[in-house]
Amino acid sequence: MNKQKLQEELKQSMLSKDELKTSVLRLLLSAINYYEIQKGGAGYQASEEDVLSVIQSQIKQRKDSIEQFKNAGRQELADKETKELEILQTYLPEQISE
H-type helices in the chain, by residue range? Predict the structure, then answer.
């Protein structure tokens, strides 16, 4: 998965009026842009490995948030984070089974 494919996915989700997916993709693209700035400045382009790394870090953040929201008794927020997590996981390559 590269940044251009994610931008195309964002356009499609906006056209289909999928608010949750649009929101998740905007956050993901923002995180990728931030990573690019941190890594090499304005001219740096994130590789596919960089994009996967950012997606994995976003997934980890969602899992941590879900756990914290459940511990605090905020199930509605945990459910929202769970839906975002499911969307993010679709952008990871399939894991090889044992």
Answer: 3-15, 19-40, 48-71, 75-89
